[in-house]
């Protein structure tokens, strides 16, 4: 069945450093990969997404890369700031899995001063 | 509305009681999803509605859980004979519909079964 693995489960970086979170997926037919940020006690919010017809997408300090051959995608945050501290979830849209997103298990990012 | 609205925001109930959680999706969004998030855990899929199609119930953990969506808009998730392990945040999300679109989540209902 559909499966999304996410690593690491926790990540601690110094302010100003970069953070990278990686996900792998199982269904080669997946075509849409969003990332969500969830601050403590709040709802998950979409921060960036990528479709299978592109390999990279950037939005200010955030970028996502996709390697379809290897079936993995990554979130890159540069110049991290304390407000980047949150749980980040990757997800993949499985067309053969009922047209819904399957989420990774989340990464707790802590940006230390 | 401007966003996905869920009510109540918090619910404390006694073990064995039934509860109903409500979700009002974004106007025009034909797809509606329910997920469950236990403390410090990921997002567990429960059920998915798309237009007038039969819902995908493959994530419901037991027959105590059910959901309906009336008129293609508002949805209610019902948990019968609640158990302590049902305690979690129940998140509703909506999207434009069949196809690969991002979800917009509601703020969730925090359910505590005592």
Layout of strands and helices, then pairs:
The complex is a heterodimer of chains A (113) and B (114).
Chain A: E1 4-7, E2 10-14, E3 19-25, E4 32-38, E5 45-51, E6 56-59, E7 62-67, E8 72-77, E9 86-94, E10 100-103, E11 107-112
Parallel strand pairs in A: 2-11
Antiparallel strand pairs in A: 1-3, 3-8, 4-5, 4-9, 6-7, 7-8, 9-10, 9-11
Chain B: E1 5-7, E2 10-13, E3 19-24, E4 31-37, E5 44-50, E6 65-69, E7 75-79, E8 88-95, E9 104-105, E10 109-113
Parallel strand pairs in B: 2-10
Antiparallel strand pairs in B: 1-3, 3-7, 4-5, 4-8, 6-7, 8-9, 8-10
What would you say about this model in short?
The complex is a heterodimer of chains A (113) and B (114). Chain A is mainly beta and 113 residues long.
Strand composition percent of chain B: over 45%
Strand content of chain A: over 45%
Shape of chain A: globular
Order of helices and strands of chain B: EEEEEEEEEE
Q: Total helix count of chain A?
A: 0
- Provide mean pLDDT of chain A, rounded: 92
The ordered H/E elements of chain A are: EEEEEEEEEEE
Number of distinct helices of chain B = 0
Category by helix and strand content of chain A = mainly beta
What general form of chain B does the structure show? globular
Span of the ends, CA to CA of chain B = 33 Å
Structural class of chain B: mainly beta
What is the number of strand segments of chain A? 11
Largest sheet of chain A: 6 strands, mixed
Radius of gyration of chain B: 13 Å
User: What's the rounded overall pLDDT mean of chain B?
Assistant: 92
Oligomer: heterodimer
- Give helix % range of chain A: under 10%
Biggest interface and residues each: A-B, 23 and 23 residues
Low-confidence stretches of chain B: none
Please, could you describe this protein's structure?
The complex is a heterodimer of chains A (113) and B (114). Chain A has 113 residues and is mostly beta strands. In chain A, 0% of the residues lie in helices and 58% in strands. In chain A, the strands form two sheets. In chain A, strands 2, 4, 5, 9, 10 and 11 form a six-stranded mixed β-sheet that branches. The N and C termini of chain A lie far apart (41 Å). Chain B is mainly beta. Chain B is built from no helices and ten strands. In chain B, strands 2, 4, 5, 8, 9 and 10 form a six-stranded mixed β-sheet that branches. Chain B has a four-stranded antiparallel β-sheet with strand order 1-3-7-6, with no helix packed on it. Chain B starts with a strand and ends with a strand. Chains A and B meet through strand 4, strand 5 and strand 10 of A and strand 4, strand 5 and strand 9 of B.
């Amino acid at each position: 069945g559909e499966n999304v693995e996410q690593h690491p489960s926790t990540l601690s970086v110094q302010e100003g450093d970069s953070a990278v979170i990686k996900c792998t997926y199982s269904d080669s037919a997946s075509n849409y990969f969003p990332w969500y940020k969830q601050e403590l006690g709040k709802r998950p919010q979409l921060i960036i997404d990528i479709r299978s017809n592109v390999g990279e997408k950037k939005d200010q300090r955030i970028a996502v890369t996709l390697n379809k051959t290897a079936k993995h995608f990554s979130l890159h945050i540069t110049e991290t700031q304390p407000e980047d501290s949150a749980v980040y979830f990757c997800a993949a849209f499985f067309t053969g899995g009922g047209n819904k997103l399957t989420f990774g298990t989340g990464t707790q990012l802590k940006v230390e001063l | 509305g401007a966003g996905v609205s869920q009510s109540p925001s918090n619910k404390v109930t006694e073990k064995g009681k039934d509860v109903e959680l409500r979700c009002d999706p974004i106007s025009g969004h034909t797809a509606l999803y329910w997920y469950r998030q236990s403390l410090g855990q990921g997002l567990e899929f429960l059920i998915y509605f798309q237009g007038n199609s039969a819902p995908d119930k493959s994530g419901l953990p037991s027959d105590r859980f059910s959901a309906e969506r009336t008129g293609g808009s508002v949805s209610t998730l019902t948990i019968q004979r609640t158990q302590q392990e049902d305690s979690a945040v129940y998140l509703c999300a909506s999207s434009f519909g069949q196809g690969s679109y991002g979800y917009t989540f509601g703020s969730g209902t925090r359910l505590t079964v005592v």
